[in-house]
Predict the 3D structure of the following.
Amino acid sequence: MRPSRRDLLALGAAATFAGPAFAAEGPALRDLAKAKGLYFGSAVGAGPKGALTGSFEDPKYREILARECGLLVPENELKWYVVRAKGPDSFDFERADRIADFAKANGQALRGHTLLWHHPQWFPAWVKTYDFGPRPAAAAAKMVSEHIQTLCKRYPQMISWDVVNETVDPKDGSIRDTVFSDAMGKEPVLDLAFHVAREAAPKARLVYNDYMSQEVGNEQHRAGVLKLLEGFKKRGTPVDALGVQSHIGAENADSFTGFGKPQTKQWTAFLDEVTGMGYDLLVTEFDVHDKGLPAAFGPRDAEVAAYAKAFLDQMLSYRQTKEMLAWGMVDKYSWLQNQWLRQDKAPKRPTLYDDNYKPKPLREAVAAALRAAPAR
């Protein structure tokens, strides 16, 4: 649903009136979400201090997380290329442990991302060249199983896990090829991941997570995800929910300007099919890509907030939506700052707080969507 002109003008007036003193009023987002029976939270990265991936090292960022979030997810710290960077016999949990300790100290739940990012680009180099020997299917299954068991045992407090991430190729809807699918077959490795996760984390919500979206150009991606979910259901694979990454707004392309064109009817039909199969929904990586929008903060923030409010109103209207995760809370730590740069070279404003740690109209749009959501 595209924001109306009246919505944009109203939000623009609010942004202009508030200016740099704009402040969050009323309950924290975690409390607004809790009142409706769901979680609100954010990703946080424990990478190098000062880097895009190092938001956890910023005390002001941690203050925002503690105040606003009832749920945290490590941004990169549990991905294979971080936790198993050194080789097949080594795990490094130092970064993820620090986030887990912070969550516990602040009464926050924790969710895991991701047990199997089934995409050839995102495995460490040693995985891509690993020799699985004369019985590759058994050796690959052993490696995947031990990886999942180790992470789930380390973090039994996880309320949900992105068990498999981004295995659908958006170009044609097929399942991606990796070293594991080459050894085991495409469906078998995915099914194995969920079965092992169910045994290792019996209380966690098990999620298939992907970036299919509402905008034009996602048709094949959505169809592929539906086919994947149908296959899981037919084979009895223990998948509880679809994670909708919700990187909304501009298309991820160097030449793109403005917002994409939402396919409201098709997106609704997609969500109806997913929930009709018995799956829950999660908003897992929410941000708004503002490439090509006006440079002035007032008009830009207004368009971002209105576009986000329409999207979140629809997503939260489904009582099956159980969690909402922002992919970062402060603009300067957003992964979008070094991807698909704006033509005017200006920084992007895709998150709920600006570089001065002040809440933006997007924060109020999220709050308004949570207030309007039905209880679940």
Observations:
- The chain has one domain: 5-372.
